[in-house]
Amino acid sequence: MPANLDVLLAYGDALAADIQGDELPAALVGAMRQVIAIDADQPDALWYLGIDAAHRGDSHAARKFWLRLSHGLPEKSQERAAVQARLDALH
Fold first, then answer.
1. pLDDT reported for residue 23
2. Beta carbons within 8 Å of 16's beta carbon, 6+ residues apart
3. How far is CA 90 from CA 16, 53, 54, 63, 81, in A?
4. Residue-wise pLDDT tens for the chain (91 aa)?
5. Contact indicator for 73, 80 with CB cutoff of 8 Å
6. What is the spatial distance between Cα 68 and Cα 5, in angstroms, rounded to a whole number?
7. Do 28 and 15 meet the contact criterion of CB atoms below 8 Å apart?
8. Domains in the chain and their CATH numbers?
9. Smallest Cα–Cα separation from 46: which of 58, 29, 59?
């Protein structure tokens, strides 16, 4: 069900359960790319695709994903602070 957002997100959650570090399973990255194709502002997909881009050394793409994510989060939230910390760490 590649066009079902709820199924893709549930699949992504299952794949993300065992993540250690910033190297993401290819299946998770693929699922999040499908999610972004359906909903360009979906927070989980923006987060994981930013992590994947940063891990691959693509700071420009990581920044793009995380800035979009950051703008959708409340200003004083812990989530936004976590995203900002990732942005600050980019080279």
1. 86
2. 24, 28, 48
3. 22, 11, 7, 8, 15
4. 567 899 999 999 999 988 888 889 999 999 999 999 999 999 999 999 999 999 999 999 999 999 999 999 999 999 999 999 999 999 7
5. yes
6. 19
7. yes
8. 5-89 (1.25.40)
9. 29
Cα(3)–Cα(72) distance, rounded to whole angstroms? 23
Tokens representing 28? Answer: 């998770």
DSSP 4-48: -HHHHHHHHHHHHTT--TT---HHHHHHHHHHHHH-TT-HHHHHH
- Decide: 29 and 9 in contact? Cβ < 8 Å: no
Residue for token digits 């927070």? 43
Please, how many CA atoms are within 13 Å of residue 37, restricted to the half-sphere of its CB? Answer: 10
What's the pTM?
0.92
The contacts of residue 28 (CB under 8 Å, 6+ apart) are 12, 15, 16, 19, 48
